[in-house]
Amino acid sequence: MPQTLDSELRRSLAERVRYYRELGIYDFYWRESPTPDQTSSSTFESEIREEMSARKSAVVPAIAGNNLVAITSKPEQGVADPVAALKLIREDLGDCTRCKLHQQGRKQIVFGVGNPRAELMFVGEGPGADEDAQGEPFVGRAGQLLNAMLRAIGLAREQVYIANVLKCRPPQNRDPVAAETMECLPFLDRQIALLRPKIMLVVGRIAAQNLLRTDAKLGALRQQVHSFGASGVPLVVTYHPAYLLRSPAEKRKAWEDLKFAREVFARG
Ligand code: URA
After folding, report:
1. Does domain 82-267 have CATH number 3.40.50.2020?
2. Largest Cα–Cα distance of the chain, in whole Å?
3. Are 114 and 161 in contact (CB under 8 A)?
4. Rounded CA gap, 25 and 4, in Å?
5. Which of 131, 169, 173, 174 to mutate to test the pocket of ligand 1 (most atoms within 8 A of CB)?
6. pLDDT tens, 46-99?
7. pTM for the whole thing?
């Protein structure tokens, strides 16, 4: 039985996988090659085999000079109609069982909602109870506030696209764990790559830290234009509406962030 990866190793593996994904390489499988020392392969290698379990699809060139083989086909590639392309990503997600959340009380997957040609994309953390029940992001109390935040910058909910880092509700709305975000983020990355919004407004610490791959506090991330991944989509961070409901005094700062986002949007 392989031992569990320590957190540092797991983090570097996640980084490596993400790096390949930014290059457009999405899936990996392990090609067996019976070498004399294979029986003594390291725990790390065994863990990689487990992490990157085989998915049969069009095979493209080996990337790692050894057994790791990359698969680059993405079903939405080359599909011009964004509605059809988003549908293909949703179909690829399927009735997802990639992480344990499917066994932990999720009612349904909450993929994303809104205008597939949106110039502004909102990204939150993950579905809560209302979203899990209705299958749509930000429909509960936090969603009402999000709608008000949108109206404050002159936008209707129907004009933007709204998604989350996690597509399934974690039990008791706990913070996501690395294994969950590692499986789920590639789908958000694909939604972003497809929409290519003029700006992303990311709400809350968890979403901001995951998209920017940082441990920095939210306060240190707001009021700046970040660049998202390989696509370089401008990304602005503000407080999560659920936090603002608990701490209404912070709404003033959120309003500053919204005005800032509106300026960046107008510049773009
Ligand atoms: N909080 C989030 O981060 N996302 C939702 O969809 C709802 C609440």
Report:
1. no
2. 66
3. yes
4. 25
5. 131
6. 554 554 444 333 333 444 445 656 666 799 999 999 999 999 999 999 999 999
7. 0.78
